[in-house]
Amino acid sequence: MAETYDVVIIGGGPGGYNCAIRAGQLGLKTACIEKEDTLGGTCLNVGCIPSKALLHASEAYEGAKNDFAAMGIKTTGLEVDLKQMMAQKADAVDGLTKGVAFLLKKNKVDHIQGKGRITGPGQVEVTGKDGKTQTVSAKNIVIATGSEPSTLPGIEIDEERIVSNTGALSLKAIPKKLVLIGAGVIGLEMGQVWSRLGSEVTVIEYLDRILPGTDNEVAKEAQKIFKKQGLTFKLGTKVTSVEKLKTKLKITAEPAAGGDAETLDADIVIVAVGRRPYTEGLGLENVGGTTDKRGVIQTTGHFKVADGVWAIGDCIAGPMLAHKAEDDGAAVAELIAGKAGHVDYNLVPGVVYTKPEIASVGQTEEQLKEAGIKYKKGKFPFMANSRARTNHETLGFVKILAEEGTDRVLGAHMIGVGVGELIHEVCVAMEFGASSEDIARTCHAHPTLSEAVRQAAMGVEGWTMQM
Ligand code: NAI
Predict the structure, then answer these.
(1) What is the full DSSP assignment across 179-191?
(2) Which of 65, 296, 421, 462 shows the smallest number of beta carbons within 10 Å?
(3) Which CATH number characterizes residue 391's domain?
(4) How far is the CA of 454 from the centre of ligand 1 (A)?
(5) CB count, 10 Å around CB of 247?
(6) Ligand 1: does its nearest atom lie under 6 Å from the Cβ of 14?
(7) Are residues 126 and 211 in the same domain?
(8) pLDDT of residue 331
(9) Which residues contact 192 (CB under 8 A, 6 or more apart)?
(10) What is the mean pLDDT of the chain?
(11) Residue 304 is part of a domain; what is its CATH number?
(12) Contact at 8 Å (CB) between 270 and 168?
């Protein structure tokens, strides 16, 4: 009979593979089951990584086209080679997925290829691509099955013309007209990629704002900037159907509040209306596990579903972000090993990798107001930051929110080039329970974009200097 594992993880995405690595490091006999050919899950294969490769390449193209001349750099014959752009993306994905396989091996984790299904306590049946099954026994099962794109009634994703994030990252040609349903993170990132490469992009959003959940002031600024860059927004609008005609797609939409319908045509429609937990065929019921109406696996506090069954990442509550899943994964491995394991979801940063980037951590002004928490605010525009000026990248601002009285930092919200990196200074500060004064009195190198964070922190007590 096969040996019993200490931990068997179902899913090899950022949650699953980080859990596996940490469990391996802690000396637990571990296996990671993944149904796809490559490890890395949505993030590495059809999410964070390929999208960043396309965002980076398209940004470089746009820079060469629009910004180089002003810096005294002349270009001629500039053109997009989509095939090569896709190849460099595939290369990044390939290298990183192989890297994950290497890390599992290095930490003595068995990688089992196939789809895992829980058949009872401590039992996982794995069905390989050839249809053969095997049963794996484990003292602990960790569910890390992630999420899948949500769809809209009557709109069928074919990944050719009507696509999710997966198809949007592998279009075979630059669409002339692109319609995006959903002005969330995927919508805006993909909208920018294809708009930079030449598509006419319309974003249809149900709500009357973009990026729900993001600090209002930041979202408003983002919309203004993206509109200037060429994206068309149709807010407060609901898509009711997408009809596939021979040469184009016909989109019917109507005001969310009710009213006359209108039609638009497009070559490609990207559906980016959120994601839902992926638990299909998982056998959760066989261990007494349950989900809520949205399919979110219910846990009792620290990732526990039932005795010896745990769940992490996108399939449980909390932000659906790769780095949150990673932290969940490490925490569960530590709990299984008898250590403490905890993740503070309030301190999970969120970054939208557009240009300019949008980054946030902690609570928004709206959340603080709703909770009746009194706060002070410091804000600093990149227009007044010397490094942003030398780089000709002066859009956006940094905003720091601190509790009135204690001065404890409660949130930071930023929009600007590079803020996806700058946010972590505030994350660390908040982990240490810092006050705005702690950040304000920390020496920051000059000239750096980070000085904008310091100046915003100084602004909380009204002593911003460089303005
Ligand atoms: P999202 O939740 O960010 O945005 C979905 C948008 O679609 C919302 O604005 C919503 O109001 C809108 N919507 C919903 N139904 C609609 C309808 N019928 N018509 C028009 N609009 C509608 O979800 P998204 O962009 O699909 O991303 C999925 C997940 O992946 C998110 O959890 C996101 O955090 C994650 N992700 C994170 C990235 C990052 O961290 N940079 C990048 C890409 C995705």
Answers:
(1) EEE--SHHHHHHH
(2) 462
(3) 3.30.390.30
(4) 31
(5) 6
(6) no
(7) no
(8) 98
(9) 55, 58, 226, 229, 231, 354, 355
(10) 97
(11) 3.50.50.60
(12) yes
